[in-house]
Design brief:
The protein has 195 residues and is mainly beta. It is built from one helix and 19 strands. The two termini are 28 Å apart.
């Protein structure tokens, strides 16, 4: 199984109206966030303002979680609201006008409508079911809790995204220490799975 390892320092960073964003992954490879011609984008952004408006992304579904601090999300189009603690997940339509309160660093998944994205927080060793695209994101942690933790043959490192495509058998994620929280995202054909 081929696993692509993308640490934050190898990812592309730019600014948005409320802070900075770091793009860990975009597919197809030659696509662009600015042109809105991508199918999948995984990024991490800083929200530097007390209140901000997220960019409207018609034609996309989104998953977001704060990595640090808290975020409060509300939408013009629906009564749904989210009060997110670190690694709490929010699933919403990118076309919604999204109001955000709180300063944080977040983790974002954006997928073109028609694709199915799932996201979970893993805390124990497990086999990962095959998917068209699978991602493991390891939030920034002290190095010691990651000692002995790995995805297949790759040692886990903090603030790093791991990407692998459909394989014939489940991939094995080994978490050595208790208390680790790892983000697991899959993208397949279908629609966003609201867990």
């Amino acid at each position: 199984m081929e696993i692509t390892v993308i640490p934050r320092q190898r990812a592309f960073s730019s600014t948005w109206s409320g802070g900075t964003t770091t793009e860990f992954f975009i597919s197809p490879h030659q696509s662009s966030y600015q042109k809105r011609d991508f199918d999948i984008r995984i990024s991490s952004a800083t929200v530097d303002l007390n209140e901000s408006e997220f960019t409207v992304l018609s034609g996309y579904d989104r998953i977001i979680t704060p990595l640090t601090n808290q975020l409060y999300l509300s939408f013009q189009e629906t009564a749904d609201t989210y009060h997110l603690q670190p690694l709490d997940l929010a699933f919403f339509d990118g076309a919604h006008h999204t109001h955000c309160v709180g300063r944080a660093t977040d983790f974002n998944v954006m997928v073109r409508k028609g694709l199915k994205a799932t996201a979970d927080v893993l805390t124990t060793s497990t086999y990962l079911k095959p998917a068209a695209h699978s991602f493991i994101y390891v939030p920034s942690l002290q190095p010691s809790p990651l000692r002995g933790s790995y995805l297949e043959h790759k040692r886990l490192q903090g603030d790093t995204l791991y990407h692998f495509t459909r394989q014939s058998s489940p991939a094995y994620l080994h978490l050595e220490e208790s208390g680790l929280r790892i983000l697991y995202v899959t993208v397949d054909n279908g629609s966003v799975s609201l867990r």
